[in-house]
Specification:
With about 325 residues, the protein is α+β, with helices and mostly antiparallel strands. About 30% of the residues lie in helices and about 30% in strands. It has 2 domains: about 150 residues, Roll (Nuclear Transport Factor 2, Chain: A), CATH 3.10.450.50; about 110 residues, Nuclear Transport Factor 2, Chain: A. The strands form 3 sheets. Strands 8, 9, 10, 11, 12 and 13 form a 6-stranded mixed β-sheet that branches. A hairpin with a 2-residue loop joins β10 and β11.
Length: about 325
């Protein structure tokens, strides 16, 4: 388990005559300390549910895990699946019940890339590869309430055969059938590495928020220079590696400053250690079409050292009636 080290708030010591008296903590400091302690406790309670569920679901391949770990009527945001355990069961029964070729191909290989836990949310980046080499990258987010999964979102994107760099969309280049077969899937040893326990969530969030604020103020290239590290590593398949890759992409996509700009909806953030995962809906300024998107940033030394992203078009309607966000 990952636990963040939070420095205790120390009250000042005042000298009164020849005796030392301890001052009472300021109310704001006490409230902040209490909030951090409550968040830490909630995170660890969520982690217990997350790791048990993920082990059953991803490692043991037990698709009945939802019946054990989720509320029967949990809220579903995957556009193809209805609400609740029954909706999840019906969706996978349809997939597994579909006619299979003879001889049947081997089952796809599954690789866990990243596991994050934050408050009442936990998230996993993972990918699958079938024997033909077709691969897909997933980010799933779950919300836990009263010890059970209460809500689920996901974003899914096919991994293209080629990209603007050689880093892969995930980590470790386990995106081919041969490489995925050689990897022993693990939720405690994901390919991107576990969150750094020496990195504080609050510091990572601040770096991300400062970067976004500078970009939002219009100083895009200044933000890249200030907040992207010298060895910045890119995983988006359409953006070149390094700072220059980010600059070239922005010039290509945003060169016409007079054109309509996309708008971003509210952000759902899952942050742990040196990772900040952001989930949102983007609306194209020209067409009005929407996509569900996830960006993940790795923060090292006050700078962004690595970036991943996924995009999935939002359909006109969903099986559950719930939006993708």
């Amino acid at each position: 388990m990952r636990r963040w080290t939070i420095a205790a708030t120390i009250a000042g010591i005042a000298l009164a005559g020849c005796a030392h008296a301890q001052q009472a903590p300021a109310p704001a400091a006490t409230a902040a300390s209490d909030a951090e302690a409550a968040h830490r406790a909630q995170t660890e309670a969520t982690r217990a549910v997350a790791m048990a569920f993920l082990n059953r679901y991803f490692i043991e391949h037990n698709f009945g895990a939802y019946a054990e770990f989720a509320h029967p009527d949990f809220i579903q945001h995957n556009p193809k699946i209805a609400n609740g355990v029954a909706g999840h069961r019906a969706y996978f029964a349809k997939i597994f019940g579909a006619p299979k070729p003879d001889p049947a191909p081997p089952p796809p290989r599954h690789v866990t890339d990243m596991v994050l836990v934050d408050g009442d949310l936990f998230s996993v980046m993972h990918h699958s590869v079938d024997s033909t080499g077709a691969a897909r990258l997933f980010v799933d987010i779950w919300r836990v309430a009263d010890g059970k999964i209460a809500e689920h979102w996901d974003v899914i994107q096919d991994i293209p055969a080629t990209s603007a760099h050689g880093n892969g969309m995930a980590c470790g280049n386990y995106e081919t059938w041969e490489r995925a077969q050689a990897w022993a899937d693990s939720i405690v040893n994901p390919t991107c590495g576990r969150p750094d326990p020496a990195s504080k969530r609050a510091d990572s969030l601040k770096t991300f928020q400062d970067y976004v604020a500078q970009v939002g103020a219009g100083d895009v290239f200044g933000a890249i220079e200030r907040y992207l590290s010298a060895g910045y590593r890119q995983h988006s398949p359409v953006i070149g590696d390094g700072k220059q890759g980010a600059i070239d992409y922005l010039r290509r996509e945003w060169g016409d400053l007079s054109g309509p700009k996309p708008s971003l909806g509210p952000q759902r953030i899952v942050a742990e250690g040196d990772y900040v995962l952001v989930h949102y809906i983007l609306t194209d300024g020209a067409t009005g079409k929407q996509s569900a998107q996830v960006d993940v940033f790795r923060i090292r030394g006050g700078q962004i050292s690595e970036h991943w992203d996924l995009k999935q078009p939002v359909p006109e309607k969903t099986e559950s009636g719930n939006p993708m966000w």
